[in-house]
Structure formats: C-alpha cells, structure tokens
Amino acid sequence: METAFFSFKNHLLLLLLFSVLLLILTIHPLEAESEDAAIISRFQQYLQINTAQPSPQYQQSADFLISQAKSIGLEFQSIEFAQNKPLVLLKWPGSDPSLPSILLNSHTDVVPVEQHKWAHHPFGAHVDSDGNIFARGSQDMKCVGMQYLEAIRRLKSSGFHPLRSVYLSFVPDEEIGSRDGAKKFADSEIFNSMNVGIALDEGLASPSENYRTFYAERNPWWLVIKATGPPGHGAKLYDNSAIENLLKSVESIRRFRASQFDLVKAGLKAEGEVFSVNMVFLKAGTPSPTGFVMNLQPSEAEAGFDIRVPPTADPESLERQFAEEWAPISRNMTFQFKEKASIHDKFGRPMLTKTDSSNPWWILLEEAVRKANGKLSKPEIFPASTDARYIRERGLPAIGFSPMANTPILLHDHNEASV
Ligand SMILES: [Zn+2]
C-alpha cells in the first residue's frame, strides 16, 4: 500500500532532507563560512531561551520559532492544548496534498540544570575554540529541531518544492511525560487532518562514527507492591510478617533484574531489548518522634519499581509473573500500577517501526545517510521514552534519529554540548 504513494520526487525530497541534516553537521566549505555562522547564531538564540522544566519560557520559544518560520517562508500556527503551553506547528505545503505527509517532531522543553556544576552558563550557548556549543538542550533536543529548520531553509532557497507536505511540530512538556504536549497532539483533529505517513523524532548521540536510529522504545510500567501482616513484637520470630514477605519478593525481583542485566553484560542483548527493573522506593516502619519504633514489626511494607518493558514482551505473562511471584496473595501481597504504558498500538500490534525492505521510508533514510558519507549502526530500541510512542500508538511509523556521530552522549548531563 505505502509504496503506491512513492514517486521519484518523494525519494528526492527525503534524500535531500536527510542529506542536508547530515551536511549541516559534517561539511564546512570555506565559501559557506558566513552561512555557517548564521546557522550557529540562530541555534544559539534558540538555546538561550530557558525552557527548563518546571517553568519553561514557552512563549519566548514559540515567538522565536514563528520568527524562523516567517524568515523561511513556512505556514505557522501556535496551538495550546493546555494553557500557556504552546505547540508550534509549521507547514511546508506539498504540491499534492492528497499524499501522506512527513512529520518532523521535536520538543522545546529541556530538563533542569544544576548551574554551579556547569563550566559555562547552561543558557549562554557558549562556543569554545573547538566549536563545541554548551547549553542545556544542545543535544536533547533543540539541535534536532534547528536541523529540521535549517535543512528546509536550504532546500527552499535552492528552489526545491516538495510533492508531499512537510510538517514540523515543536511540542511542549516531553520531559514531564507529554500529557499536555505530544499526547494531546497525536489525539487531536489537527493531527488527523495532517495525514501523517512517517515521523522523525529524537534519538541519541553516538560516540562512534555510526549514526544511531531507534525503531521502538521500552514502555514504562511503574509497579508498587505491598505486603500486609500482623504487627508483632520486635523480639518474636514468626512467619508472614509484612517486611519478611516483602523482602522475599524483593529478592526474586533482584534475581530477575540480574538475569536481564547479565544478558546485556554478556553482549547477548542490547539495553533496549531487555527489561530494566529498578527499585525506586521502600516504605515501612512505624514512625516515632525520634525516628522509628524499634521493637515493633510493622503491619505494612511497600516497595516501588520503575520497570521498562521491551516492545516484544508478552504483557499477560508479565502480569502473571507479578501476581504469582512478585506479589502473591499467598504472602498477603497486592500490587498496583502507577503507570502502565501500552505495549501495543491501537490495532493491537507491537509498537515497532519496520527497519527492513518492507518499509520504503527506512530504505530512504539508509540511502540518504550513505549518500552523505555517513554510516548507520544497527537500529535500536530506545531504552527510555520519547514522544515517538504517541505516533507509533496510532499505528504510524516513526524513527528516532538525532544525527550526531562522534559525539559523547551528554543529554541531561552537566555541560551538555553540541560538538
Ligand atoms: Zn528529548
């Protein structure tokens, strides 16, 4: 079906688009020096807008993006799915609006900083003598949003006209779960009307020469297990105390964690292909004015786990494991989810974007990277979550791709930089 929509012009569009993304990072001909300086300066302006959670300057960021759209000549609108959280949607109309469109998504917010641990001001966008640009968001992911814009600026000024429409969405709140951002956007009438055929979103920098791509991601399941039992004197040994029962579960969860980690350490599986399980809280004890009562075994004990579930997992067998081994009724235990992201899309299929010859978009991406003298490593499952999940949930293909090779992974770190 999908291939019927393709034509040479479409191939060209993607080839150019992807190629230019790479060219921006890799080619610096002398005659383009002043153009390069202008590109860097625009990137710095975007980085200098403090969009750190929890109080991002979204309006300034929207104003900046709209000014870019005007200077490039793109259609623009600012949409608020939640008050004061503008989503900027830009459009480069294609000559055949009946064809599925291309969506280039990026989020405008960034994670907070511990300013005193930075060598340069995190919103100064300082460029050092090696050309490194220091700022929060320089990798995650204002660099990607700007690359989309600069690629289109270049294509447009070269006289290229796309056959398909190209949309750019600059969305808020990705770093706090996207409830008022990509989630509402992907559920909206506006999104339906865009008739998206393929989306690009964020990936990760690559310390090697190979660019990384992501075709799926792990799903967060936040599990709380709770044990109850009779309170007991601190001196008495007896069965079924809440803490004893909870600890039995903690032991089996730790064994499961180790078995998954062993697969990664042995090189048999990539990080995104296994379950990660990390305990995030442990709650028990009877408070007293000086701390905790020391001669009483408490009647309740709880533990919380951040579990990341690979897209190929069987959710039913997993829940069975929770009920039978991690929180069995036989040990007076219960469990509940604080978050349980769906593993399947709305058609009941695992949320994976094909990265083989059955997906013409993937073939185009591969070709474009090769033509720009780049190399790709094996496509991966993103270990955490991105906005791409809301697009894949709708059954649409999405690839995570932050074109940064030979770059240390510095997202969310002190001294985040584009190199
Ligand atoms: Zn990000």
Structure description:
It is a single chain. The protein is built from ten helices and 21 strands. It has about 425 residues and is an alpha/beta fold. The protein has two domains: about 280 residues, Zn peptidases (Aminopeptidase, 3-Layer(aba) Sandwich), CATH 3.40.630.10; about 120 residues, Alpha-Beta Plaits (2-Layer Sandwich), CATH 3.30.70.360. The strands form seven sheets. It has a six-stranded mixed sheet with strand order 1-2-6-3-7-20. Strands 12-16-10-17 form a four-stranded antiparallel sheet, covered by helices on one side. Strands 4-5-21 form a three-stranded antiparallel sheet, with no helix packed on it. A hairpin with a 5-residue loop joins strand 1 and strand 2. Helix 1 crosses helix 9. It is elongated and about 80 Å long. The protein binds zinc ion (ZN). The site of zinc ion has 5 residues, from loops.
